[in-house]
Write a structure and sequence with these properties.
InterPro entries: AMP-bd_C, AMP-bd_C_sf, AMP-binding_CS, AMP-dep_synth/lig_dom, ANL_N_sf, ATP-dep_AMP-bd_enzyme. It comes from Dactylosporangium maewongense. By secondary structure, the chain is an alpha/beta fold. It is built from 14 helices and 27 strands. The chain has three domains: 198 residues, Rossmann fold (3-Layer(aba) Sandwich), CATH 3.40.50.980; 69 residues, Luciferase, Domain 3 (Luciferase, domain 3), CATH 2.30.38.10; 124 residues, GMP Synthetase, Chain A, domain 3 (2-Layer Sandwich). The protein has an eight-stranded mixed beta sheet with strand order 2-1-10-9-11-12-13-14, with helices on both faces. Strands 15, 16, 17, 19, 20 and 21 form a six-stranded antiparallel beta sheet that branches. A hairpin with a 2-residue loop joins strand 22 and strand 23. Helix 1 packs across helix 2, helix 2 packs across helix 3 and helix 8 packs across helix 10. The longest helix is centred in the first third of the chain and has 17 residues.
């Protein structure tokens, strides 16, 4: 299927297409015009060409406007990883109509869905055909919100004017690991930054496919959607992530690039898929969403000797600003540098730059108009200053401008006179050969204010004293965990980030006297919760 020429914007002044698109809508139209038969997306048995993508997005735009939606109205997109091809069509159709896309994962609880719909002011929800709309849950839609599958919208073409680069394009909700998610608004120019109309400059040109398993509604997922529009390689989505399924897709499609979060990398290594599948085509492994522990990065380089490991550091608020670097064993904990050195700053509370080596707040400067918190001016003022964005991390720079994270600002443990980095503890824990996953966090202490605790998933028998003995050569005494939880898995959100508040709850004082002797809390029923915990009490302080 190809698009009609009337639906594709004409080249700009001078008769020549510009080198960069002003919007993702323009980028899709350009690729549909120049490469209509080229496959853009592969999801299961579904293959979508650029021509089909553009035509179907136009039909979505026409259907939404025919239902009375006006430019600027918000449309929520309630999809899962198995429906990435439909989600991509829905997202670009919403943008083509001049509406604002509100991505949200189908894994959200009904109350979370209602929060997103209410806070964003969404007027409609698009969802996969045959899927139960979220309004069927315990919490109904807000009044006046309607839901539809793409097929319900009808056909037709959309001939309205394209959106302005300055118009609001999407509201993406943060993962909410510590509280109620905030909506982060981005305009069309922000989303299209870094894209190109020049086929010679398309990224990921070393293979026919790149692979990911990131969920809808995450910043990493949105980056993959932009990659699908901009890259030479087609986007291949894995649906629900399992190491075996992921490895089979790499093998079957001769994938050259894979994108992971650290939790996925750890699972791949633990499953040993590099020993049971031919993954020799992989040339690039991109890690994002959280700091990749150096020990895990070293294992990846051994498991994928033909691949380059690249760390990407950004956030929902800061994108498209980021740092990146090829993993360097000489700088295993470094997260890289931005394209322009002046776009990265370590600052004190007064937002003034600090000297090299001194720890402070990490700030990144966006190359285009920065994002903002939708409907929350007070929170926006705390995080955004012009194009500068406070990352919520504590970090430092070395004398060559490389960024090193000390910790998340909220995760730093203030124990007595010390400020303890949970990242440093986690990196040390990952060096133990039996530790598969690890998380460090603070728990209340009557004298110190907070004490260090850790949760680990192991691949064999290991005791807390053995673990502390191992850490003695790697950490200072005040950094060694006084309490250790051994779990079957760590609690994570859909984006793979560890939910440390859930770990703290396992160590909270019991609510009733009758339960004070329990050392093995029952396993929560939530799939993201830890299971089979076993606590080692804080009885080894002398050995610290």
């Amino acid at each position: 299927m190809t698009t009609t020429s009337a639906a594709i914007p004409a080249p700009r002044a001078g008769g020549r297409a510009p080198a960069v698109p002003a919007t993702l809508v323009e980028l899709l139209a350009h690729r549909a015009s120049s490469e209509p038969a080229r496959v853009a997306l592969v999801a299961g048995d579904e293959r979508v060409t650029f021509g089909e993508w553009h035509t179907r997005a136009g039909a979505v735009a026409a259907g939404l406007r025919d239902r009375g939606l006006a430019p600027g109205d918000r449309v929520a997109l309630h999809y899962g990883t198995g429906g990435w091809h439909e989600y991509a069509v829905a997202f670009t159709g919403v943008l083509r109509a001049g509406l604002v896309a509100v991505p949200m994962s189908d894994r959200l609880a009904p109350a979370e869905v209602r929060h997103v719909l209410t806070h964003s002011g969404a007027r409609a929800v698009l969802h996969p055909a045959g899927a139960v709309p979220p309004s069927a849950g315990a919490v109904p839609f807000p009044d006046g919100v309607w839901a539809a599958a793409l097929a319900d919208l009808g056909g037709g073409t959309f001939d309205g004017p394209p959106p302005s680069p300055r118009d609001l394009a999407q509201i993406l909700y943060t993962s909410g690991t510590t509280g109620v998610p905030k909506g982060v608004g981005a305009n069309h120019a922000n989303l299209a930054h870094g894209c190109t109309l020049d086929p010679r400059r398309r990224p990921l040109a070393h293979s026919a496919h790149f692979l990911h398993a990131f969920p809808v509604g995450s910043n990493a997922g949105q980056t993959m959607l932009v990659n699908a529009l901009n890259a030479r390689a087609a986007a291949l989505t894995a649906g629900t992530f399992t190491p075996g399924r992921f490895a089979k897709l790499v093998e079957r499609h001769a994938v050259g690039t894979v994108f992971l979060v650290p939790a996925m990398a750890i699972e791949l290594l633990h499953a040993g898929v590099h020993r049971t599948h031919d993954l020799s085509t992989v040339r690039l492994i991109g890690s994002t969403a959280a700091a990749l522990p150096p020990a895990v990065a070293l294992e990846l380089t051994a498991a994928f000797p033909g691949a380059t490991i690249v760390n990407y550091y950004t956030s929902t608020e800061a994108a498209p600003a980021q740092t990146s670097m090829v993993f360097d064993p000489e700088r295993p904990a470094a997260l890289g540098r931005p394209t322009v050195a002046a776009d990265l700053m370590i600052a004190g509370p007064d937002r003034r730059p600090l000297p090299v080596g001194e720890a402070g707040d990490v700030w990144l400067r966006s190359p285009v108009a920065a994002r903002s918190y939708y409907g929350d001016g007070e929170a926006t003022a705390e995080v955004f200053h012009g194009r500068w964005v406070r990352m919520g991390d504590v970090g430092r720079l070395d004398d060559e401008g490389y960024l090193y994270l000390v910790d998340r600002d909220r995760d730093v443990i203030k124990s007595g006179a010390h400020k303890v980095s949970t990242l440093q503890i986690e990196h040390a824990l990952h060096e133990h050969p039996l530790v598969r996953e690890a998380a460090a966090f603070g728990v209340p202490h009557p004298v110190l204010g907070a004490a260090v605790a850790a949760a680990v998933v192991t691949d064999g028998p290991l005791t807390a004293p053995q673990l502390r003995t191992f850490l003695l050569e790697r950490l200072a005494g005040h950094e060694i965990p006084g309490r250790v939880l051994f779990l079957d898995r760590l609690p994570r959100n859909d984006n793979g980030k560890i939910l440390k508040r859930s770990l703290r709850e396992l160590l909270e004082p019991p609510s009733s006297p009758s339960s004070h002797s329990s050392s093995s809390p029952s396993s929560p029923s939530s799939p993201s919760s830890p299971s089979s915990p076993s606590e080692l009490p804080d009885d080894d302080r002398a050995g610290r």
